[in-house]
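Sanity check

After download, print the first record. It should look like this:
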Amino acid sequence: MKRDVRIRGWVEAVAAAISAALFLLTLVWPAWIEALFGVDPDEHSGALEWAVVALAVCATILLSLLARAEWHRARTPRTP
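Expected C-alpha cells:
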C-alpha cells in the first residue's frame, strides 16, 4: 500500500535545501552578509560568518534527518 509524504516532510526537505545553500554560500562568499545588509557586525573578524556556517550545517543535518525519517515513514507499509 502506497502512502503519501505529509506536508511536514516536504517542508523539512525544502528547509534542509535552503540551509545547505546558505551553508555553501557562506563558505564560498563569506562577505555576503555585509554586502546584502550593509553592516559589519563582527568588524571583519569573520566570527559571524563562522557562526552562520556552524548553524547552517547543524540545521542541514537535523532537517535532512527529519525529512529522511518522514520519507521512510511514508514508504513503510503499515501493519494492521
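If your output differs, re-run the checksum step. Summary of this record's structure: The chain has one domain: 7-75.
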